[in-house]
Fold this sequence. Notes:
By secondary structure, the chain is mainly α. Among the domains are: about 5-130, Multidrug-efflux Transporter Regulator, Chain: A, Domain 2; about 140-225, Tetratricopeptide repeat domain (Serine Threonine Protein Phosphatase 5, Tetratricopeptide repeat), CATH 1.25.40.10. It contains 14 helices and six strands. The chain has helices at about 5-15, 20-25, 45-60, 65-75, 120-130, 160-170, 175-190, 195-205, 210-220, 225-240, 245-255, 260-275, 275-290, 295-305, and strands spanning about 5, 35, 40, 85-90, 95-100, 115. Strands 1-3-2 form a three-stranded antiparallel beta sheet. The protein has a three-stranded antiparallel beta sheet with strand order 5-4-6. A hairpin with a 4-residue loop joins strand 4 (about 85-90) and strand 5. The protein is globular and about 55 Å long.
Amino acid sequence: MIELYSVKDVSKIFGQSESRLRYWIQSGFLWPSVRRGGQYFYTFEDLITIRTAVELLESGLSVQKVRKALVMLRKELPEGVQPSARLRICSDGTNIVVIQDDMAYEAESKQLVMAFAVSSIKTQIAEILPLRPDTVEPAVPQLVEELSDQTLRQDLPSAYQLFLHACTAEENGAYETAERYLRQCIGLEDSMAAAHTNLGNLLHRQGRLEEAKQEYDQALLHEPEQPEARYNLGNLLDELGNREMAIAELRHVCSRSPGFADAHYNLGVMLAEVGGEAQAQEHLNTYLRLDGKSKWADEARRFLANA
């Protein structure tokens, strides 16, 4: 069984705030490989990319350079790498290589800004996760004004600060406040796809479907492969009566983000309703493999049993 780690787990392992990890997901900078029951989960391979990103950012590299480094890392990283693998990830700030842990490495620039053994992440996990209490997560503070300066680092762009304020407001159920922050964020940085997606979700929840669609379209204009926006757009199109386009959008999500369990479930249901039972079974079986313990799993099993 593949070990999976929640956003909360990864926050503790690497000392990054959950809001920052969620922003990385929504902006397409770093994303988990698995989504189940509306939640994201990281694999061990994902942890390697996060450790790499954190160390490169802390070394002073720009987000753009780190993004390019992560693309190179994903190409070089062996598929299905395990915590015990004798691998070492090294970078000189421009190039990134994956080498055997017992081999020497010399950066061409002779300025090694990052190097760590993959096995060291296992040690981090062992040191942190056993300490987590098996209790309900504490409630988020009631007031948005209580958001601390530690959460909103002063060196972050103001648009990003507004985005984090919006996330906190939404978690507290202050939807009008969240919408206001998101609109201010977009006013400062219209290209922030994650802000458009979150605003679309808020509008969708209020039944403002056409407005929500415009926001999802804007998100995809800036980040064409953002699975969250495309998934929500597919569901919204179905509500608007455009089943054909809804299926097309969900097919795209399942193809590009095969670990997105909810997309497989919704696509399976839609295909079944239009007569594509064979394909519906395929996607519902995939959903059960990804999220067999969710509240919708029994519905998927009942459909497959009657097919």
